[in-house]
Specification:
Radius of gyration of chain A: 23 Å
Number of helices of chain B: 1
Low-confidence stretches of chain B: 1-37
Structural class of chain A: mainly beta
Order of helices and strands of chain B: EEHEEEEEEEE
Oligomer: heterodimer
Largest interface: A-B, 40 and 44 residues
Strand order of the largest sheet of chain A: 1-7-5-4
Number of helices of chain A: 0
Distance between the termini of chain A: 92 Å
Number of strands of chain B: 10
Strand content of chain A: 35-45%
Shape of chain A: elongated
Helix content of chain A: under 10%
Mean pLDDT of chain B: 76
Largest sheet of chain A: 4 strands, mixed
Helix content of chain B: 10-25%
Distance between the termini of chain B: 77 Å
Structural class of chain B: mainly beta
Radius of gyration of chain B: 26 Å
Strand order of the largest sheet of chain B: 3-4-10-9
Amino acid sequence: MSTELTRSPEPPPPPDETGVDPNVVFTPPIDIFETEAGLVLLADLPGVTSETLELQVQDNKLTLFGRVKSPVPPGARVIHQEYGVGHFLRSFILSDEVDHERITAKLTNGVLEVFLPRAPKSQPRRIQVAIE
Amino acid sequence: MAIFRWGQQTWDPFRDLEREVDQLLASVSLSFQGLRVGRQYPPINVYELENELLLIAELAGAKPDALEVTVAEGVLNIRGRHNGPEGVADDKYRRQERPRGVWQRSLPLPDRILEDRMSAEFTNGVLKIRLPRGAATQARQIQVLDGSTEEAPAPPPSEAT
């Protein structure tokens, strides 16, 4: 068999500025609990900063995407590995009972806290019956 | 009307009937966590650089002042505690996956680590411990004496330290 290459080998993927394989995403562990005012969602996102976190509500889907940066300089050699380094992704379907407009979030020590306020109950609306 | 939907499961925290289902599922997720007990917490990666080793642990939610990092007799100990949110009763949980409680890990340090120059930092839920390495010591020849002779062994050649 010929060893001649019929096409040049694929160029290496452009280096990600985060130093993390963008094709690997992890599902972060979450807690969800109920309060008087609504629901609170906590997600463990170690290594994610407020600049690298995208929290998006589109239609009724809440998506969190947290990018992490490699914690080590390039050229570091792994000699012991118990977890994979990668971005975090998870999404949730929200119901109408969550007030989408008033969702707030904060990030502290790698933990994202999202507050999902309960939508105010719609008041029964009186419909005027026109008399002909 | 579900607040959240994971796969085929639906949750409605505002209805008692489905709350029962939820508790059922919560117990399922607890047993799943039980399966993960064998895995040590926190997970740790170790990297080798030119002059040091870097030990990195994912500890989202830890508080820097409550992290205890000690070194004694060549063993690194890290310990801490994950407190759940305060004042939340167990039956208020719809989902509980995040680790909780007291954790501790002990790791024997490799040779040549300069214990007095180790440093640790905690940023965005990631603990990074630097383990600087000392210079490699020169291989030293050890003279093998002939044990059959009765003579006292000659002192080794003096060596500048």
